[in-house]
Structure formats: structure tokens, C-alpha cells
């Protein structure tokens, strides 16, 4: 745990007092252990008696793309069940004859498939999950695959659908069976959370329909539309569990995705296109690809980093969305946090 001299605690505590977020939990470690961890602030400014704790559960938003989709995809590649370079329409009947047919899983993982930038699922396709799936897979592309890099939630949504097609299992089960259970991530799950766990969860944005901040229910509207679990978002977890996941990237354990998948993913796959992308991972802001510090962020205020070259990982979970949608203050805190963690 952190001591008063811990620079991470000083940085994150000052940011909580400045109103960047109500609370935060963090952990930094190497391949074998956690070097610094702790929590600062409160779960909700309206309940100042409830501090954020090291085992607080956070809605990690787009970190789901790493903790589920990227990881599960790795197990499929490792098993020879998925060729990243094969056109989707050549082996996936739902994609055949549609605009997406010529794109590959590699295009999806590098955000170069040409998909629409916004989800807009309910507006475009309604509320039936099968109608949403059909509509997403039939949507025209913005440009030919491979021409440009543009981050979109739809890439992870479609890869989640693909994983379900290849395995005939729902994403919830795939994540638990292939990733979270083998890595000992006992606190990690898709929501909605049961009442007892919801009390340990950091609330996010105020929900007009419910008349209270969301707590234990995923913030992302598209994911809520799809029952709380999809490739876009939906995972709730703790810093300790994310640390277990990131340690596996540095020192793999049997049973989950391989070292080869990690190594293949943490390098630039987009050539001269900008911004540079690995497979779902990207070079951390403020670094160059040669620095070998890779990151992924979540809209609710979450972040993770890993650097094989430095043998170091870091995770920062906040619920900044409880206070603001302005990403600027937290982005500045993340930059300092990353510098402290990786030098």
C-alpha cells in the first residue's frame, strides 16, 4: 500500500481535491509484484463518508476492449481458429455479401476497417439486439479498409460478434472461461452488478431516468441497450485484477493468451498512417512507439499501460465522469502518472 511519501498518492490525492474526479485507485508493478498501490478520494462527493478503497469496483468502459475482446481474440489466434488477414466475408456468413466482407480482423484491431465513427445503435437500428447486430454488420464503410486510422467502438463490437460466431458462446462466458478465471481475476465481471457488489462500485454519471448516478450499471448507452455485455464496454473490475491481467503480458501464465499474441500486438501495425496503432493498443500519449509504452483508456476515467521493454505495468481507475465529461484535467494527470510509472 502507499505511504505518505508515495508520489502516486500525492499526485492523485491532489487531483481528487482539485475536482478532477471524486476518487481514484491505482497500482503499478512489474512482472512479479505490485510496487505501489492505493486509493484516494471518495466514491461520491454527495456521500463524503464513503472513501474510495483499493478494492473499489469501477466501470472501466473501453478497457473492456482489452480485458475481453483483445484477450479473447488472442486465444482464437493462438488456437488457429482465426486468421487475422482473411477477409471476414470468406468465413463468416453474416459478413458475406456486405460492405464489411472485404475487411479483416486485422483491420478491426487496428481501427482501419473504415467503420462509422459513432455507434448510434438505437437511433439507427432500434432496441432489438438481433436488429442491432444485423444493422451493424450491414452498415456501409466510410472508406476502403486500410486507408485511414479512426478509433470507433464498432470495431470491438464486431470483433465480439465474431468471437461469439467462432465459438458459439456468449462473450460473457468467453471472457470468464478464457481470460478472467485462468488469470485469477475473481473480482472482474460484466454488469449489471448485484446489490452487494454495487455498494462497492464507484458511481458514474447522473442518470435522468433513474434519478441517481449510475452505480453497478454500465454507463455506456450502447452496452446497456445490448443487455450490459458486449465488446464496447460493460466490465467492472479492480486495480488488483487489472494488475493480474497486465502481469500476464510480462510473464505469461498457462491458460490464457500467449506471449506471442502480446508481442505481435505491442508493435505498430499501421505503417505510415497516423495515429500509429498496435492491435487495439496504442503508444501512450507523450511517447513514441520506440519508447515501448502502450496504453488504452476508458471514457469513465480509466487507463492502463504496459511496457515489456521496461518490465512495468500500471493501472489508474477513476470515476471522473461523476463530475465532468471534460477529458482535459484527467489527461494531464494521466501524463504525470505515466511519467512516474515508466520514467
TrEMBL record:
Alphabetical list of SUPFAM superfamilies matching this protein: beta-lactamase/transpeptidase-like
GO molecular function: hydrolase activity
Keywords: Hydrolase
Domain Beta-lactamase-related stretches: 9-327
Gene3D superfamilies registered for this protein in UniProt: DD-peptidase/beta-lactamase superfamily
Domain of life, per lineage: Bacteria
Protein name from the UniProt record: CubicO group peptidase (Beta-lactamase class C family)
Amino acid at each position: 500500500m502507499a505511504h505518505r511519501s508515495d508520489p502516486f498518492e500525492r499526485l492523485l490525492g491532489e487531483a481528487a481535491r482539485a475536482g478532477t474526479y471524486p476518487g481514484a485507485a491505482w497500482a503499478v508493478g512489474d512482472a512479479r509484484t505490485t510496487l505501489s498501490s492505493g486509493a484516494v478520494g471518495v466514491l461520491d462527493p454527495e456521500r463524503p463518508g464513503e472513501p474510495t478503497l483499493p478494492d473499489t469496483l469501477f466501470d472501466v468502459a473501453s478497457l473492456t476492449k482489452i480485458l475481453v475482446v483483445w484477450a479473447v481474440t488472442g486465444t482464437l489466434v493462438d488456437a488457429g481458429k482465426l486468421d487475422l488477414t482473411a477477409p471476414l466475408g470468406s468465413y463468416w456468413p453474416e459478413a458475406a455479401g456486405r460492405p464489411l466482407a472485404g475487411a479483416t480482423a486485422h483491420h478491426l484491431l487496428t481501427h482501419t476497417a473504415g467503420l462509422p465513427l459513432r455507434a448510434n445503435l438505437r437511433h439507427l437500428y432500434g432496441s432489438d439486439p438481433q436488429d442491432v447486430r444485423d444493422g451493424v454488420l450491414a452498415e456501409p464503410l466510410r472508406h476502403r479498409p486500410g486507408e485511414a486510422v479512426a478509433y470507433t467502438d464498432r470495431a470491438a463490437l464486431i470483433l465480439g460478434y465474431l468471437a461469439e460466431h467462432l465459438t458459439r458462446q456468449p462473450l460473457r462466458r468467453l471472457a470468464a472461461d478464457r481470460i478472467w478465471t485462468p488469470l485469477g481475476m475473481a473480482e472482474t465481471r460484466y454488469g449489471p452488478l448485484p446489490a452487494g457488489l454495487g455498494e462497492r462500485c464507484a458511481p458514474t454519471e447522473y442518470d435522468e431516468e433513474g434519478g441517481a448516478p449510475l452505480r453497478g450499471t454500465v454507463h455506456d448507452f450502447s452496452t446497456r441497450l445490448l443487455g450490459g455485455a458486449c465488446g464496447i464496454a460493460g466490465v467492472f473490475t479492480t486495480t488488483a485484477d487489472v494488475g493480474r491481467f497486465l502481469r500476464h503480458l510480462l510473464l505469461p501464465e498457462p491458460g490464457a493468451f500467449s506471449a506471442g499474441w502480446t508481442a505481435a500486438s505491442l508493435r505498430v501495425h499501421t505503417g505510415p498512417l497516423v495515429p500509429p496503432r498496435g492491435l487495439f493498443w496504442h503508444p501512450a500519449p507523450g511517447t513514441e512507439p520506440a519508447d515501448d509504452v502502450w496504453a488504452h483508456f476508458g471514457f469513465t476515467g480509466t487507463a492502463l499501460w504496459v511496457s515489456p521493454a521496461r518490465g512495468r505495468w500500471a493501472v489508474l481507475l477513476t470515476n471522473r465522469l461523476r463530475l465532468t465529461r471534460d477529458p482535459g484535467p484527467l489527461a494531464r494527470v494521466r501524463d504525470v502518472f505515466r511519467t512516474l510509472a515508466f520514467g
